[in-house]
Amino acid sequence: MKNLLSMEYLSNEEILHILARASAFEAGEPSQLARKYNVANLFFEPSTRTKTSFEMAERNVGCTVIPFDAGFSSALKGETMYDTVKTLEMIGLDAVVIRAKEDEYYNELLEGINVAVINAGDGAGQHPSQSLLDLYTIQKEFGKFEGLNITIAGDISHSRVAKSDAIALEHLGANVRFLCPPEWAGDFEAHHDWDDLIEDSDVIMLLRVQHERHKVNKDFSKESYHAQYGLTLEREKQMKDGAIIMHPAPINRGVEIDTTLVECERSRIFEQVRNGVFVRMAIVETLLKGRE
To answer: Is it true that 7-126+274-289 and 128-269 share their CATH fold?
Structure first.
């Protein structure tokens, strides 16, 4: 595995390898990297969890993290993504983690770039590291994927998490269903109410409404969206025993989820954040070890 760009490019074997390494890291096993590597995180969109999680993961496996501030980079002067990454390669970097507004920005990096590229989110496209930490969270809970009912509810068409998770979970044998307003389904077939979903879901994954990606705003108040599509206290009571709640965050409390459910017994939302460090350690190690 040379890069991590999309869940479409990962085999089940590669996914399970990363999850196994994440488990080993959580158990306290040290990194298997033979030397120090230089990495940089190029975030052209805001991020709290993903950026800091990658920085922590990179340090934990022994990498040197080279600071990069997109707000003061030559990208503001019109430099292409290719030229930015090629420059960092020639300076001596071994890997870059990139988040950008453009879908599939990484296509221009497929030839001529020799550093490892990790996609930390491309527009409304893919978010593979989030998908892998979601998979790890589910695997820890259930020990399997085959036959699980996963309901993903929210802004489906704009969610790179929904797209990445759907690809991986279906390949691993889970049954993925979507819930959203009709105009937010995109290319997916979606349900438009909770009937026939809430009681048999093993995992309910909620998504933030991405107002910044909407060209035309849907006329939803916070209250009306929560009543129609959110996980309310009443709906949580209908969930089956052992079912869990997930969310990639950031969370709009009282919109997609009742605020009292964010840290309830079923919730794995902050556990996902913790798991993300171990998974990103595994991603960084796997890519860099392939260069040794």
So the answer is: yes
- The answer to whether the CB of 16 falls within 8 A of the CB of 139 is no
For residue range 265-274, list pLDDT tens digits in order.
Answer: 999 999 999 9
Residues 6 or more apart whose CB falls under 8 angstroms from that of 191 comprise 177, 178, 179, 197
Neighbouring CB atoms inside 10 A of 228's CB total: 14
Q: Rounded distance, CA 104 to CA 122, Å?
A: 6
Dihedral sign from CA coordinates of 271, 274, 275, 280: positive
- DSSP class of residue 168? H
Q: Could you state, in order of their start, the residue ranges of all structural domains in the chain?
A: 7-126+274-289, 128-269
Rounded distance, CA 69 to CA 50, Å?
15
CA–CA separation, 67 vs 55, rounded Å? 10
Neighbours of 278 (CB within 10 A): 23
Per DSSP, what are the bridge partners of residue 119?
Answer: 98
Q: What is the CATH number of domain 7-126+274-289?
A: 3.40.50.1370
Q: For the segment 130-155, what is each residue's pLDDT rounded down to a tens digit?
A: 999 999 999 999 999 999 999 999 98
Neighbours of 110 (CB within 10 A): 12
End-to-end CA distance of the chain: 13
Matching residue, tokens 């969270």:
137
Question: What's 128-269's CATH class?
Answer: alpha beta
Q: Tell me, rounded to whole angstroms, the distance of Cα 182 from its chain centroid.
A: 24
- State both tokens at 256: 């997609």
Confidence check: pLDDT of 206 > 90: yes
